[in-house]
Write a structure and sequence with these properties.
about 525 residues; alpha/beta; ten-stranded mixed sheet
């Protein structure tokens, strides 16, 4: 191990290494899963530290597994942004500092803990001001690889000291993707960790953690150098995510469709050959939604509660939304909303062009909450200046406004080029805010085309990611909005969907048990 081993850390009964043959993703267990010891290692977790959907998954999935009776441990960095007083972070008694040796660098890190709000689940934080006291969660600094290697090894070493022998170590994205290789090499004969199986969840394949090959000694896995992909090293690159794909016992993505898309050259970002090689272990499990937070019946951030049987509050929320943004409320005029990171993936350049043409010809309003790439912010700033009575672009982020847009908009547009899962379309369905989405990834899995003849369907997905496709989706939604009875049916269809974590977590529960039996 690259870490300095501390004293007596073995569990009773030393376990011998066992077979690591792959498991079949198509195998489904239908019975109630037995309790499993679960270790989650991740770079972010709501509510402590969040930049995107990964944090929401970590804020919900371990909570649900804990509710189901499984033995859960979660490790994440003790970022400077975390409010230590609010969450009552405290040093873990008796554990002491953990020493991590990575190449010539030695790190002494502390382990703190706090209780996940609303539960009795204890969360563990890896404390290293040198690595985690920075202005942002993720950086472009030269030691970015070291930051998350320290997280990974500190979590494993803390488990050894705590005598916690996980059945499954669940890793997330490139930041923890070398853990499966570490388990198969450095910890292969460790009395605590040798029986642990690894699961890697890919939240977004585009972020792979690619570093110069020269960092290999700093991975702490120098003795396993022969297990790294030699051709990549010869080309001067070391990809963390690639090695997670190669060595994890199981691989998941955050929607079924995305698990198939990333095995194609179009969406595989160079890793598709390796994912196809491991296709029997790649499975998509859709992210869930926390309906305690996202539900119009009990949302504390919206002024008027409503539900599927009484939708009157939704129109009042529309008036409140427009009033808050300085737009005139006109009954019968539809509002299209969007809450998004403003990056190329989200298709916002396409949206700006299409909206510019449609706003001149049709009566509707558009509100956008987001921030990101400067040129995209400028596009929507210009759109607002051109159509000051129809468009409002709120640059930045506000959780309260995000909830109000979901509750007050009639439609929600997501023209993403690709979308591993997407969460806002799931929120929108719950709020009766009809989604207009590009038919890709999790958007395709969760939004079904409305058919006015059968009365089935929940939104307006469009096939082609171009101006014609997006224009069709928006115009189809606007046309159906003109018929109140039809529109009410679309809304209620969406509100009847159940994407709760209570449902989605059962698939993870079955998967964990399957891995445990390897």
């Amino acid at each position: 191990s690259p870490a300095t081993r501390a004293g007596a850390s073995a569990v009773p009964g030393e376990n011998q290494p066992s077979s690591r043959d792959g498991w079949d993703a198509r195998s489904v267990l239908c019975h109630r899963a037995a309790p499993v010891r679960l270790l989650y290692i991740a770079p972010e977790m709501a509510p402590f530290a969040k930049t995107g959907g990964l944090a929401d998954v970590l804020g919900a999935l371990p909570r649900q597994m804990h509710r189901l009776g499984h033995d859960v441990r979660v490790f994440l960095p003790a970022y400077a942004q975390i409010d230590r007083r609010k969450y009552r972070l405290r040093p873990l008694p008796g554990l002491g500092p953990v020493q991590i040796q990575l190449g010539s660098r030695r790190f002494s890190v502390g382990i703190a803990s706090a209780i996940l709000p609303g539960t009795d689940l204890e969360i563990y934080f890896v404390y290293s001001p040198e690595l985690f006291s920075r202005s942002s969660i993720y950086t472009a600094d030269g030691d970015e690889h070291l930051r998350f290697l320290v997280l990974s090894f500190a979590a494993l070493e803390a488990c050894r000291r705590l005598r916690f022998a996980p059945d499954v170590v669940h890793c997330h994205d490139w930041q923890t993707a070398l853990v499966p290789l570490a388990l198969k090499s450095s910890y292969a004969r460790d009395p605590v960790l040798s029986r642990a199986r690894s699961l890697l969840t890919i939240h977004n394949l585009q972020y792979q953690g690619i570093f110069p090959a020269q960092v290999l000694p700093e991975t702490g896995l120098g003795r396993a150098a022969h297990l790294f992909h030699q051709d990549y090293l010869k080309q001067g690159h070391l990809s963390f995510l690639l090695h997670g794909v190669l060595y994890a016992d199981g691989i998941t993505t955050v929607s079924p469709r995305y698990s198939q898309e990333i095995q194609s050259p179009e969406h595989g970002a160079g890793l598709d050959p390796f994912l196809r090689m491991r296709k029997s272990t790649v499975v998509g499990i859709l992210n869930g939604v926390d309906y305690d937070e996202w539900s119009p019946e009990n949302d504390p951030f919206i002024p008027h509660a409503y539900g599927a049987t009484d939708l009157s509050g939704k129109e009042r929320n529309k008036a409140a939304l427009l009033g808050a943004l300085g737009l005139e409320y006109r009954r019968g005029t539809p509002v299209i909303g969007s809450v998004t990171r403003m990056v190329g993936q989200k298709g916002l350049d396409l949206l700006a062009g299409v909206l510019g043409r449609l706003l001149r010809r049709q009566s509707f309003q558009f509100v956008l909450l987001g921030s990101g790439e400067h040129h995209l912010e400028e596009m929507f700033g210009a759109l607002q200046r051109t159509f000051p009575r129809q468009v409002c672009f709120y640059r930045g982020y506000s959780n309260e406004l995000a909830h109000l847009i979901e509750a007050g908009a009639d439609m929600f547009v997501m023209p993403s080029r690709y979308e591993p899962c997407g969460l806002n379309q799931l929120y929108s369905l719950r709020y009766g805010t009809v989604p207009i989405v590009h038919k890709t990834g999790g958007l395709a899995d969760t939004v079904q085309l409305f058919n006015s003849r059968t009365g089935r369907g929940t939104g307006f997905p469009f096939d082609n990611h171009d101006a014609q496709g997006l224009t069709w989706g928006i115009q189809a939604a606007l046309a159906h909005y003109k018929d109140p009875a039809t529109w009410r049916k679309v809304m209620q269809n969406g509100m009847a969907q159940d994407f709760s974590w209570a449902v989605q977590a059962k698939q993870y529960e079955q998967l964990y048990e399957r891995l445990q039996r390897l």
